[in-house]
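user: can you give me the structure for this one chain? tokens are fine.
assistant: on it. calling the predictor now.
[tool input]
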Amino acid sequence: MNRKVSIYVVLIVIVLAIIIIIDATRPKPIDWSQTYNPNDKIPFGLFVFDKELPALFDGHKIKKFNITPYEYFDEQYDYEAKEYLSKGSFISISGENNLDEESATELIYFAEHGNTVFLSMHEFPQKILDTLKVKTESFYYVSDSILTYIDNPKTDKYYFREGASPFYFKSIDTAATTVLGYQEFLNRKDVNFISVPFGKGNFLLHTQPVAFTNFHLLKDNHYRYAQDVLAYLPQTDVYWNTGSNLNERISGSPLRYILSKPALHAAFWVAFWSLIIFIFFNAKRKQRIVPEVQPLKNTTVDFTKTIGNLYYQEKDHHNIINKKIIYFLEKIRNEYLIDTYSLDDAFAEKLHLKSGRPKEDIQQIIRLIKKHRQQFASTEADVIEINKAIEKLRL
């Protein structure tokens, strides 16, 4: 690498380092993504909820899993005893519903066998809504607070603004459903928390999952609303689906840890691009240029022209015709394996069948060859005539 290239590489590395330092030292912007991930400490993660959940169900185990509910509970079902080995409450908190139909069916069976299913999300699996005879809807929501509360005079009312959901229950089966909570916005009052018994168990459906996020659990007294909602769950073991509703599968990439840390992530890409630049500038040859060697010139054509000119200058037309006849008959013997000793009708017939050339043209050249062998001198016209006859056959 010459001095000029080295300077370019150093300058590029310095510029990248300055960019990384500036990016690392500036205040990190707040990530308002609604991940509902128990490992996220961002406003709409569930890190605080994850830490406080064991205190709400003191004495009971909290089982977290990130496979689908179908995969988890299907293995927990004893087909001989016709009951689940895992009993208690299933909870799922998510911004969107990504539960597959098999999982929704499995949760219906789970509730039917005497367990509780708690879903807090904006939209619910259609399979569950149809089974419980419940319909949801949303209204046009501007950036303003939604008043949310439990249907109990002893509980407080809370204003949710950041991340609040405009979804509510449009219709319910009033004969079986119990309304547990409401939300108010402008001049409307809608149901946002219901309890629906099913089989030996119960469904609890809630449309404000943001109430369980870090932001609202740490804001003023909003944590009390989350406590009031979860108070309707029985004091049993809890099975928390933390991942399948977010499509979160642990990456198997060996770079997973490096890319998850900002500093290591930046260092990795600096090293990667530095390697690319190094390879680019060192891809040139370091040996001297190999001189071009001119290939040997084909002198066959020149030799032929020289011999032709020699015969032409000597006016030895008879000898030229002899050479052409010799070459012509030699080619017939080698390519068609035909004896050329007797140039008769049998010879003409064999050459016609093997070469596919017109029999008249073959007889014409035979006639000219015999004519030439009977005379002792030839003219330039004779050379042209026999040459045209040979070329016409194109053997």
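assistant: here you go. The chain has two domains: 47-249, 305-393. The first helix runs from residue 3 to 25.
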